Amino acid sequence: MSDDVNSAPEEVVDEAYATLPWWRSGLNLAVVAVAIAVLSAGVGFVVGNNRALPDPNAVDIGFLQDMRFHHEQAVQISLLYINTLGSDPDLRTVAREIIINQGVEIGRMIQLLRDFGKPEANETDLAMGWMNDPVALDRMPGLATDTDLAHLRRSTGSDADATFVTLMTAHHQGGIHMAEYAQVNTAVSEVRLMAEQMVGGQREEISELSQLLAASAA
Q1: In a domain, 6, yes or no
Q2: Cα(68)–Cα(217) distance, rounded to whole angstroms?
Q3: Domain extent at residue 92
Q4: Number of domains into which the chain is organized
Q5: Residue 161: its pLDDT value, please?
Q6: What is the CA radius of gyration of the chain?
Q7: What's 57's DSSP letter?
């Protein structure tokens, strides 16, 4: 029999219906981020209740509540970027890392607030009173506006890459401003250490984002 008879027809895969890797799905990443935050909070709650914590001051509580809100928008910005048609795979990797890392930090903040017997979120419309610089909760330094987020959602290609870097750089700079104050004004060493790690980590990430965008444009 001829080869034509014995040969199976080549399988044709319609890319439009191909199953994407789990990390290419914004919904999957959101679920992962929430799961990590909840798991971190749950584990931390058990561990935290087995050791004594010093009494927190207003800076400890305010920083944890407001930074949780701040971090949640960083996750949102990163998810929006991943769901755009951005062109730089390295920037998309950084966005995924932000989703995971800040999700874990959200869990740590929830854990500590539970340990302190305080609300897990800022329940007022004002933020940063603990810094003696109160502002509307949604206008904390570095937060993107609804217009900014809408632009990111609609952007594609190099515009999406540049918009993501611009928004995340401003976001990190605002977070650093808050964390630097917490570094020297908190009463709880674990909160102070968290603030120090945020300052160092977000400075490094700002530099990395800038370098990746420049390389992409070259």
Answers
A1: no
A2: 33
A3: 24-217
A4: 1
A5: 96
A6: 21
A7: -
